[in-house]
Amino acid sequence: MQGECCNVPKILRSNTRHNMKRIVGTIILIVCVVLTFAQAPRKNTSCLEKATATYDVVVVGGGPAGIGAALAAVKTGARTALIERDSRIGGTTVQAEVCDMGLFYAWRRQIIAGPVWDLVKKAVEEANGSLPDFSKQEPDQWMKSCVHVDPKVYSRVAEETLRSAGVDLVMNTEVTAVEKTDSGWIVGTIAGRQIVDATGNATVAALAGAERVKSPDDIRQPGSYFFWISSEGMEFDADEANRAFKEAVANGEMLPTDVHVGMSWFIRKGGGSGCYVPLADNSTPEARDDGTCRHSFVDA
Fold first, then answer.
1. Which element (helix H / strand E) includes 110?
2. pLDDT tens, position by position, 31-77
3. Which residue, among 114, 96, 90, 101, has the nearest Cα to 274 in the 3D structure?
4. Which stretches of the chain are DSSP H helices?
């Protein structure tokens, strides 16, 4: 019994030495492999190797233009993807609620038809809305021919229409890189034979190396957004409201374009106003973060 007890430490020491040799040998082997790969010439990863999916047509921008482009492409049988940086389809129609769409008719004749028109009609119908009377369209009253859509309903119907048509939606994705390949383009991590820039500010074209031409600020339509207020139960002095608005404009606290109609009318109606943001530019990350444009937007 005593001999067996005395042999235990020897066995443990023997096994420990054996295990240590194996561990040290494994570490040396790993180090050698790492050094070998580190010293070996690296192979550049091609654009195609970066791509996670390949399509015939890649549309960037999920506003009305991008929706129309994607539906037109998939209708020809092309495998189509639509990339949208926001969480909802619809572009400024939804995000900024610039939701008076047009013009589908001009001089009392329809000039835009097809899948986009069908989508708009369905959105109006599901929101229990109504279409303008295009038979009474007058050239100097073109705004009356715009089709008003509910932003939330329009976004839902647009997404349903795109998905049912077979368009793959890539949401919440900002395109920051575009590369040319022998067979087409790589947009982010998506490959496409053809690319459609529907961003509204030629972002993809610029990333692809194209030169963007910008009109002077005094003739280019500024950024637009709509907002609504509720005046239910509100009592106010109309003259005082107008005076305060004009004073704010004179002091540079507001812009004349912040309210296109009289302030008293705007408040009394409790409705929306389409406002412009002069110098607004979202064509680059730097422009979207510009303090001057952001200040104008907040003041408006």
1. strand 109-110
2. 444 444 444 444 433 444 556 789 999 999 999 999 999 999 999 99
3. 96
4. 2-39, 47-50, 64-75, 92-95, 115-126, 151-165, 203-207, 238-250, 263-269, 285-288, 291-299
